[in-house]
Amino acid sequence: MTDGSPGPARRSIAPPSVLGDPERLRALADTGLDAVPDEAFDRFARLVSDLLDVPVALVSLVSTDRQFFPGAVGLPDPWSERRQTPLSHSFCQHVVGIEAPMVLPDARLYPRVRDNLAIDDLGVVAYAGMPLTDLSGRVLGSLCAIDNKPRAWTAAQLRTLADLAAACSSELRLRIALDGAQEARRRVVQAHGRLELLAGVSETLAGTLDVGTALRRLAATMVPLLADWCLLTLIGPTGLPREVVSVHRDPARAADVDRFGDLLRTGLSPESIIRAVLRTGQPRLGSVASLADVTRGTTHPEMASIASRLGIASYLSVPLRGAGGTVLGAITLVNGGQRQQFDDRDLLTAVDIGRRAGQAVGNSSMYGEQRHVAEVLQHSMLPRLPMVAELELAARYQPAADRVEVGGDWYDAFVQPDGDVIAAIGDVAGHDIEAAATMGQLRNLVRGNAFGRPDAVGSLMADLDGAIRGLRLPIAATATLVRICPQRAGVHEVTWSNAGHPPALVVRAGGAVEALEATPEPLLGLARPSPRSSQSTVLATGDTLLLYTDGLIERRDRSIDEGLAELVGRLTGTDTLPLDDLCDLLLASIRHREDDTALLAVRAR
C-alpha cells in the first residue's frame, strides 16, 4: 500500500500529468460512462459501504478536469445529484497519478491532500482508494471507501476493497470491449456506406456529360450522406473560381448556402483553404474548425455570418483532378456541431470522390467543346433558305441527345433560273465526321446536278445516282428530291422522287394529312443502277409540304409505320399553325432523341 507521509508544510499539489495521457482518456471515453447512475457500479459502491462499514463509497473515474461517479453511496447534497466534482475536490486523481492504492487514516495530516476542498465540502477524513484499470493496466479511476472521521484501515478491509476493485475493473473492461465492438460495427457500416457512396458517385457522374448537371448531382449525392453542406468549385483560366455549386442538407438554408457560394467566387483571401487546395492540389482536413477559419479565408465579412447560420465545426477540402493530374477545382465538405467530426477515413473517401469527379468534369468539358465544334460544323453545312413570294419555307436540324458527332442528315432548297424551287432532304449512313463530309458532298452533287436543268426529278435522281457510282464516292444514302413550280393563281405543281426515304407529308388546308406514297425505290449509291420515277401532286394555298428524316419517327420500341402513323396524327389539324411553330412543335414531340433529325416545311401562299 502507498500513503502520504504527514508533515508540517501545507502546499497545493498539482494534478498528476498522467491524467492527460491520450490513451488513458480514450479508454475512459470507451467505457461510455458519465456522471449518471449506473446500476452495476452503484452495486459495487453498496458492497464497499456494507462490507467496510463506511458512510461513503464511490466508483470514481477521473478525466483531465473532473472526477465523476457512475457508482456512489452516501454523498452529501448537492454532490449526490451532481455525481461529479472538479479536481479541487478529488482524492482519486492521486490514485491515478501514482498508479497504486492510496490509504489515508486521516487526510488532514498528509501534505498531498490536506488542502483538498473535499475535506470540508464532502467530509472526507479517512480515505482508502484502489486503482481501477483497463486491460492495458492504465488507471482510469478509483474504487474508494470514505469515512468522516479518522480510521485505522485493517488489512482485511483493504484486501476486500482490492478484490472489489478487481471485479469493478473487469466490469470497466467489459464496457470498453463492448464499446470497441460497437465501434467496429460502426466502422464496418461506415465502410460499407462509403463503398456505396463511391459506387453511387460513379453512377451519378456517368449519367450525364453536362458539367453543371454532373456537379449538381454530385452535391446531392454527398449531402447529407457525407456532410451537412458542401461547395463544389471549378476554376477558370486565371486559377480562381468561375463556377460554384453549393448545397445544404436543410432546405431552409438554401438561400444562405447559395449566397455563400456566390460570394465565394470573388471573396477568397490568400489564406483561404480552398485557394490553397486549388493552388497546391493537396487535400486539407480541419477536424476542428470555427468561424475564425472562415474569417481568415474570406474578404467578404458577410461570409462569416452566413457560415454561422449554416454551421461549421469540421471541414475537409480536396482537389478535383483531371487528366494528367491537372487541378480543375475543389470539393469542400463542412459539418456542423451536431455531427461527427471529419477524420482521415472521410478525407480518403473525399479524395477518391475528387479523383472520379475530376475525370468526369474533364470528360464533360471536352465533350462540351467537341459538341460545340460539331454543332457549328453541322450548321455551317446547312443552307440558308431562299425567299420565294409564293411560298413560305422553314427548316430545323437537331442532333441526337448527348452525341458529340455531327451526322449525315441534311436538307436543301434553292431557286432555279426559271423560278422553280428544288427542295431536297436526305440521310447519309453514319453519325460521325465522315458521314458529315459525305453529306456535304451529296448536297453539292444535288445542287450541281439539278441547277439550271428542267429535267424531271426522277431523271435528276437517276443522274445523281450515276454520278455517285461514276465518281466512286462511298455514299449510301436515302433522299427525296422535289420540284415545286410556283403559280400566281395559288395552285403549285409538285413533283417528287424518293430513294428509300420516309414519305413526304402534305397537311392540306382544312387539316387533313396526306402521305406522298409511291412504289419503293432503292437507296442512292448502290452498286447497280436503279430506275427512278417521278410522282406529282399539287399544293393549294394553305397546304404545307413536310420533308423530314427518320429521326422524327424512328424509335427502338416501335416500328417505322407506327412512328409515321403517330406523326400523321400529330399533324392533323395543324394547317393554321404558323410554319415556325409547327417545326418547333414537331421537334419538341421527340421524347428520346436517338437519332439526328432534319425537317423542311414548305407552305403555299
From TrEMBL:
Instruction: Tell me the Pfam families matching this sequence.
Output: GAF, SpoIIE
Asked if Hydrolase is a keyword of the record, the answer is: yes
Extract the InterPro entries matched here.
Bact_Sigma-Reg, GAF, GAF-like_dom_sf, PPM-type-like_dom_sf, PPM-type_phosphatase-like_dom
Q: Which SMART domains match?
A: GAF (SM00065), PP2C_SIG (SM00331)
Q: Where is the PPM-type phosphatase domain?
A: 388-604
Name the source's superkingdom. Bacteria
- Keywords associated with the record: Hydrolase
Q: Which residues form the GAF domain?
A: 36-182, 210-371
Any idea which GO molecular function terms this record carries?
A: phosphatase activity
Q: What is this protein's record name? A: Stage II sporulation protein E
- Which organism is this entry from? Micromonospora arida
